[in-house]
Design brief:
With 176 residues, the chain is α/β, with parallel strands linked by helices. Helix content is 43%, strand content 22%. Strands 1, 2, 3, 4, 5 and 6 form a six-stranded mixed sheet that branches. A hairpin with a 2-residue loop joins strand 2 and strand 3. The structure holds iron/sulfur cluster.
């Protein structure tokens, strides 16, 4: 299995979402919210394409394949820039970019920090990586493998975030 930042993000949001995605039940293309997020990313990309580089990274860790695509890396200032639509799952975004920072470190590429930008909210969040974060990411990867390989799909979480999840119809279509 190839673990990407999406796995890290979904692990933080919902174990069921992670399991569905890892088992190739994917709904992202049918979600308006996901499509909306992609428009924001593309608009940001047009504005920044000349200033930043796109980097594709991969690394083996403990027999597992890790990979990530960083869309905006400021090679001069060594800063990752990530654009998001909303901050409803802020912790998932934070761990996604920490995973990128770790991947850079594993590839011997120096990085100072990441900045998550929420253009519609006019907010930004600076993210750094320390040794405790790396230990947490290592533990997270082991737990992702356990969830993904479990034969049983985890239960729905009945959380507010479900309404903006691409799996909402799949998860709740049987309910009144
Ligand atoms: S709709 Fe809710 S329970 Fe279903 S995958 Fe998404 S976050 Fe998880």
């Amino acid at each position: 299995m190839n673990i990407t930042a999406t796995y890290i993000n979904y692990y933080r949001v919902c174990k069921r979402k992670l399991w569905l995605f890892a088992n190739e039940i994917q709904m992202e293309q049918t979600s308006d919210i996901v499509a909306d997020g992609k428009v924001i990313e593309e608009e940001s990309y047009l504005q920044r394409s000349e200033r930043y580089s796109q980097i594709q990274l991969s690394q083996n860790y403990s027999g597992l394949s890790l990979s990530g695509k960083i869309d905006f890396f400021d090679t001069k200032n060594k800063i990752i820039h990530e654009t998001k639509r909303s901050n409803k799952v802020e912790q998932a975004h934070i761990w996604q970019v920490k995973f990128y920072l770790w991947l850079l470190e594993l590839n011997d590429v120096e990085a100072v920090k990441a900045i998550i930008e929420y253009p519609r909210l006019r907010e930004r969040e600076e993210v750094f990586l320390d040794d405790e974060d790396i230990a947490y990411l290592k533990k997270t990867i082991r737990e992702i493998m356990a969830v993904a390989n479990d034969k049983t799909c985890p239960s729905v979480i009945n959380a507010r975030i479900c309404k903006s999840c691409s799996y909402y119809d799949f998860c709740y279509s049987g309910e009144n």
